[in-house]
């Protein structure tokens, strides 16, 4: 039965070759073999603190984390000046991204050159255009889910644009821009599964999440607070979200919990799985940067003001409408955004 499900799931990516590609990509992240844009450095840096990102712990004094950012500004500052001072081939914006999230940050094997593309990648090019006058002046670094915060803190990247949820716990480690996308946690499981959503049907089921993800934090908190059945097995965690889909296809877990936007893309890749139930959280993606990079945070927020007015919808239509629907209303970030951080 397990083998049959795996064979059926291959149809989602066009056969054995495509499934091999998925597994190869997942393995690449497990081994932390990063990829860089052809114009830049091919290394993604050391593992560093790795899983040190851990599970963000919510600050009791923190409310509405998506509002805890600085007001927009077009002014340069020391962080931006240092980026602009890079010379020659090194004069690029260094950005941590995903290379395996379908429609967000991925390489389409059907396209010549298989350059990184997707909704997050469009935003990166827009930021590079504003900061350096060239949308291609980017050095991409593939960053696993559990390496996003260490990569920023250790200076391996200038920012991370990688479906990264703004959360109270993460605000103690990095600074965020205003939101650029709205989503929520959902359950992904085989169509034949008896699971109906984030509820008691998860009893005795094995759930996969990415280490350091908000999904992992939510399950851990709910399990401790007895908001989930005691028999739910949440022990399976992986460095990168795509690894969960592979585990599900191999029958090693019964369901995946992740952002609904990512889950929809994974369901589009594999027609044997589907979203189960409605989103059970409200979350916002933001651009993550160093805590003291105030000038860069303000500049990115200014870029987002312009991007929301011209660029965001076109990118949504191109990359996400096929998986999330033509109506982008539920995915749009708050308008106007609020900027409650003062320094």
Average pLDDT over all residues: 86
Number of strands: 15
Query: Which stretches are poorly predicted, pLDDT < 50 over at least 5 residues?
Result: 1-59
How much helicity do the residues have?
25-40%
Shape: globular
Biggest sheet, spatial arrangement of strands: 11-10-12-9-13
Radius of gyration: 19 Å
Tell me the number of helical segments per DSSP (H or I, 4 or more residues long): 12
Please indicate the percent range of residues in DSSP E strands (runs of 2 or more).
15-25%
Order of helices and strands: HHHEEEEHEHEHEEEEHEHEHEEEHHH
Quick overview:
It contains 12 helices and 15 strands.
Q: How would the blueprint of this fold be written?
A:
Layout: H1 2-9, H2 16-30, H3 78-84, E1 93-97, E2 100-101, E3 105-107, E4 116-117, H4 119-132, E5 138-142, H5 148-153, E6 159-160, H6 168-171, E7 175-176, E8 181-183, E9 185-190, E10 206-210, H7 214-224, E11 233-238, H8 241-249, E12 255-259, H9 260-269, E13 273-276, E14 283-285, E15 288-289, H10 294-309, H11 312-319, H12 321-324
Parallel strand pairs: 1-5, 1-6, 10-11, 10-12
Antiparallel strand pairs: 2-3, 3-4, 7-15, 8-14, 9-12, 9-13
